[in-house]
Every structure is written in C-alpha cells, then in structure tokens.
C-alpha cells in the first residue's frame, strides 16, 4: 500500500512534468515502492522511470 508521502510526491511530479513537455503514462506499486513511468511529449521513445520509496524520497 502506498504512503501519503508517495502520493504527495506523485501529485507534485504530475503537476511539474507538463512544464517540460513530459507526461505520466504508467504507475505501478510494488511493495513499498511507487514506480512512475513518464514519456516525452515530443519524442515518444524518450522515457524516464521515477521510483519513490515509502518515505516519499526519489531513488
């Protein structure tokens, strides 16, 4: 189950990505980790994976 801190970081990330022309296309929760897959709006092959631990910190 995701922590409140993880969801807070996720919301901030989602609000910030459009400013640099990126968007979230997949979210996964495995154990204590939240995996956020994002993709460039201009080049679909440019992807990034953000991992957030239970304390709300990026790994």
Number of domains: 1
- Overall pLDDT score: 91
Largest sheet: 3 strands, antiparallel
Strand content: 35-45%
Main sheet: strand order = 1-2-3
- Helix count, DSSP H or I runs of 4 or more residues: 1
In total, the number of strands is 3
Pattern of helices and strands: HEEE
Through-space gap between termini: 18 Å
Give the structural class.
Answer: alpha+beta
Uncertain runs: none
Backbone CA Rg? 11 Å
Helix content: 10-25%
Tags for this entry?
alpha+beta, 3-stranded antiparallel beta sheet, single chain, 59 residues
Question: In brief, what are we looking at here?
Answer:
The protein is of the alpha+beta class and 59 residues long. The chain is built from one helix and three strands. The protein is 22% helix and 39% strand.
Tell me what the structure shows.
- This protein is α+β, with helices and mostly antiparallel strands.
- It has one domain.
- It has one helix and three strands.
Topology of this protein?
Blueprint: H1 4-16, E1 22-30, E2 33-40, E3 47-52
Antiparallel strand pairs: 1-2, 2-3
